[in-house]
Amino acid sequence: METLKYKIIKTEDQYQEYISKLEELLVADSEDSVQEEIELLTLLIEKWDEEHNSLELANPIQLLHSLMAEHQLKNKDLVGILGVSKGLVSDILNYKKGLSKEIIRTLATHFSLSQEAFNRPYQLKIYTNPIIQNSENKKREIA
Fold first, then answer.
1. Dihedral sign, CA of 95, 97, 100, 103?
2. Can you list the alpha helix ranges (DSSP code H) found in 1-143?
3. pLDDT digits (tens, 9 = 90+) for 63-87
4. What is the pLDDT of residues 86-111, one digit of tens each?
5. Can you give the pTM of this predicted structure?
6. Among 23, 41, 42, 53, which Cα is nearest to 117's?
């Protein structure tokens, strides 16, 4: 009887081993046989994440902050990963701009998570310009 190459993940060490293997496969040339191995590893890793990852409770930006800390990434590293401006990265991390579909896909792929982890509703901060706000208040006082 043939021994299975991959099994359901049961330990943190096995989880880390599968993540390393998946990263190796993603960097290597993609062949059809390798693609099936990538899909299987991704499925096993996502299953482990769903069952064990407390970050699932975090909103997408909290999750991103946690992942950046875990992987020792800075804002400028996200600029390169996402291929966007440092201003957009700053706005995203400060809840001023939402995550686009493309950014969600890129983050999910980079961190080996499901897109659903980043594709959840969260509250953006509404920025009001104090000068404009003050002007609006004066108009109300005059009227």
1. negative
2. 12-27, 32-52, 60-70, 75-82, 86-93, 101-110, 130-142
3. 899 899 888 999 999 999 999 999 9
4. 999 999 999 999 999 999 999 999 99
5. 0.53
6. 53
CA distance 111 to 46: 11
Cβ neighbour number for residue 86 with a 10 Å cutoff: 11
- Average model confidence (pLDDT) across the chain: 83
Is 56-129 a domain of CATH 1.10.10.10? no
Residue type at 77 in one-letter notation: D
- Side-chain half-sphere exposure of 13, counting CA atoms within 13 A: 0
d(CA 117, CA 119): 6
Domain extents for the chain? 1-52, 56-129
What is the spatial distance between Cα 136 and Cα 16, in angstroms, rounded to a whole number?
55
Cα separation, 138 vs 123, whole angstroms: 29
